[in-house]
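Re: [ENG-882] Designed sequences occasionally contain unexpected residues at chain ends

Forwarding the minimal case from QA. Structure tokens:
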């Protein structure tokens, strides 16, 4: 009698992702020249250069032109409600804190209807990256003022000029508890890639506010406007650990507008590190439910 011992079949290692791995079969349908194309490409490049596989990433958005981004990138994705992306992302991060969670949206979605979630996600220091494509206009609804529209701006909803003061997201994020606060410009993609890589690698809440000009409805804050004015903080010796300097630089707006990393803090733990239930046993998503088949069937039946 002989015994045959079969060797275990080891599946081949997954091929290393290429930049093409992050391009989805659906092509972006933004207006030609929209800054969001550059932001999408910068995010795909950042994920590739960080070596993150598509299945390790979840991209969540709200509603708006820029919030269509999850449909154009080959990762897990979720298109949620207007202004609610950060709330959904917080739940996703706590359910599976091994995931790299990224939120994308616009200034209206994030700083307007989503302003409440923005504040509380920052103070909780949820470990996710929030990319806001800030075009100072409501593009999807054809050109009304947004929370970041400058005073005096003439739009469809303010034909005689905007009378409201704009939100300044940089100082707001710094004092609100965000631990990585940066601003990019879609016209400087290599610089934006580095900001996104830093944000994704950071443990805690990261905001990257991106000047992403709307070529259709915003005739004031154009590519030419920003190209003439943006100045890189990295070339000016700015210390991102200096709170007072970060606030001061965040308020600068005029003939020179700083972009880059304003503020970074590494001594605060992220929310998932503080939650006792997540300390042992791995992500909640992979733990046993602790209910019997009969109990599960009863719950499902009750919901039907």
């Amino acid at each position: 009698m002989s015994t045959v011992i079969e060797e275990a079949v080891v599946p081949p290692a997954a091929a290393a992702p290429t930049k093409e791995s992050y391009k989805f079969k659906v092509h972006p349908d933004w207006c030609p020249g929209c800054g969001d194309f550059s932001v999408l490409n910068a995010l795909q490049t950042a994920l590739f250069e960080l070596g993150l596989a598509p299945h390790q990433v979840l991209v969540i958005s709200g509603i708006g032109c820029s919030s269509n981004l999850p449909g154009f990138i080959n990762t897990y994705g979720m298109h949620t409600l207007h202004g609610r992306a950060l709330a959904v992302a917080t739940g996703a991060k706590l359910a599976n804190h091994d995931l790299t969670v990224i939120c994308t949206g616009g200034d209206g979605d994030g700083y307007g209807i989503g302003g409440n979630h923005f504040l509380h996600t920052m103070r909780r220091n949820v470990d996710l990256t929030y990319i806001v494509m800030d075009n100072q206009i409501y593009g999807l609804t054809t050109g009304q003022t947004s929370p970041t529209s400058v005073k005096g701006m003439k739009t469809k909803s303010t034909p005689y000029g905007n009378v409201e003061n704009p939100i300044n997201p940089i100082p707001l994020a710094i004092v609100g508890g965000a631990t990585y606060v940066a601003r990019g410009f879609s016209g400087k993609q290599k610089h934006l890639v580095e900001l996104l890589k830093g944000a994704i690698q950071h443990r805690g809440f990261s905001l990257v506010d991106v000047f992403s000009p709307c070529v259709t409805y915003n005739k004031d804050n154009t590519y030419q406007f920003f190209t003439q004015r943006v100045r890189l903080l990295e070339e000016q010796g700015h210390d991102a650990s200096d709170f007072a300097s970060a606030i001061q630089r965040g308020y600068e707006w005029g003939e020179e507008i700083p972009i880059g990393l304003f503020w970074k803090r590494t001594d605060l733990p992220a929310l998932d590190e503080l939650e006792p239930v997540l300390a042992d046993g791995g992500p909640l998503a992979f733990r046993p439910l602790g209910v019997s088949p009969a109990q599960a069937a009863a719950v499902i039946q009750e919901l039907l």
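QA comment: On inspection the terminal residues look reasonable. Residues 36-50 form the longest helix (15 residues). Proposing we downgrade this to a documentation issue.
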